[in-house]
Amino acid sequence: MRGQPLVCAGQDLPIVVTVAASDPIRSRSPPASARWRRAITKRARAAGIDSWDAVEAISEDELERKLYREPPTSPAKPRPRPDPAQIHIELRRTGVTLRLLHEEYRQAHPDGYGYRQYVAFYNEWAAKLRVVMRQVHKAGEKCFVDYSGNKPRITDPNTGERVEVELFVAVMGASNFTYAEVTATQQSADWIASHVRLVEYLTGVPRAFVPDQLKAGVVTASRFEPAIQRTYEEWSQHYATTILPARPGKPRDKAKVEGGVLIAQRWILARLRNVTCFSIAELNEQIRAARRFTQVSFRGLLKNRCEGRCSAPQGRCGPTSKQRFLAPPRDIAPPRDILLL
C-alpha cells in the first residue's frame, strides 16, 4: 500500500514516499525532513521521473533502482607500466640496482606502481629470457663430483686447534644418489682416493665423471679442450670411464652436484655443527651416521635416493676393476702434521 505523497516546498513535482502498511516501525517513523525530500526530488529528476503517472507506471523495485542506483564512475586512469627491456639494459651498468631504477621511475611517474609490483613486472619478463636446455640423465651414465665451499673442521687432539678439512661430494645423475666423505686436502692424492672409495661404494663405475675444473683434476682449464691431470687420466683408464670437465663459469653443467653440495651442507654439516671430532676417520663415521637424507623421499614421488639407485636395472654402471687403483708416488700427500706447519 502506498503512503501519502509528500510535496517538496517550492517545487511543483510531487514525490511519493511509499510506506508499507504492514511495517509498524516505518509507520511510526517521524515525517521526512525537507532536506531529505529535496534529495529525493533531485534523484527523481535525474532518473527522468517528473509526474505521478510515471511513478504509478513502474513497480516499487524499479522505482528504487532508478532513484538509488550508483552513479556511473569514470574509468580509472591506467598507470604507466615500466619498460622491462630498458630495466634489463640499465642493470648491466655498474652500481645500478632495481631500487635505484624504481626511484627514478617514481620521479618520472608519481602515480606509478610500487617497488614490489615494479620488480614483479621485470621478473616476469626476465624469466622468459632464461631458456636452458633440459638435461636428461640415464642410470649409470654420469656422476658429478665436487668439493663443498663450506668446510667442516676437526680438532687437533694435541693443541685443541680447529683445522679445516675438505668435504668431497658425488651425485649420480639419474637417481640423485649422493655420496660424501671428508679428506685432508684437495690435492691429487686425496682427490683420487675419494674417487676410488666412491666406485667401491657404488659397486660399479659410471660411464663418465663430471668434475669442476680444479687443479687436482684439470691441469689447463679450457672451454673446449681441457687438459686432464695425468694421474686422474690414468685412474679413468684403469676403471674404463671418461672424464668430462664442466665448462669454466658454467655451473649448470654440474647442477646436480651443486644441489648435492647444498644438501650435504644442510643434512651433514649443519647437523654436526656441535659435534667435536679429533680425526678425519672419526668425522667420516659421523657423516655415515648422518647420511639420512638418502632415505628421504622426493617430493611427489614414492622413492628416495637410495631406492632410486637400487631399483635401476643391473648393468647400467660398468663393472669395477678387480685391482684397486693406487696413486703413483709423485701424488702421495705429505703427512698431516707437515701440512699444519
Tell me the strand order in the biggest sheet.
Answer: 7-6-3-8-11
SS field, number of helical segments: 13
CATH class of the largest domain: Alpha Beta
SSE string, helices as H and strands as E: EEHHHHHHHEEEEEHEEEHEHHHH
Largest sheet geometry:
5 strands, mixed
CATH-defined superfamily of the largest domain: Ribonuclease H-like superfamily/Ribonuclease H
Characterize the overall form: elongated
- Quote the CATH topology of the largest domain: Nucleotidyltransferase, domain 5
Q: List how many beta strands DSSP finds.
A: 11
Task: Provide the residue-averaged pLDDT.
Answer: 77
Question: Secondary-structure map with pairings?
Answer:
Elements: E1 5-7, E2 14-16, H1 24-27, H2 34-46, H3 52-56, H4 60-68, H5 84-91, H6 98-108, H7 115-126, E3 142-147, E4 153-155, E5 162-164, E6 166-172, E7 178-183, H8 188-202, E8 208-211, E9 218-220, E10 227-228, H9 230-238, E11 242-243, H10 255-269, H11 280-290, H12 305-310, H13 336-339
Parallel strand pairs: 3-8, 8-11
Antiparallel strand pairs: 1-2, 3-6, 4-5, 6-7, 9-10
Key terms for this structure?
alpha+beta; Nucleotidyltransferase, domain 5; 36% helix
Structure, described:
The structure is a single chain. This protein has 341 residues and is of the alpha+beta class. The chain folds into three domains: 64 residues, no CATH class; 43 residues, no CATH class; 198 residues, Nucleotidyltransferase, domain 5. 36% of the residues lie in helices and 12% in strands. The strands form four sheets. A five-stranded mixed β-sheet has the order 7-6-3-8-11, with helices on both faces. Strands 1-2 form a two-stranded antiparallel sheet. Helix 5 packs across helix 7. It is elongated. The termini are far apart. The N terminus and C terminus are likely disordered.
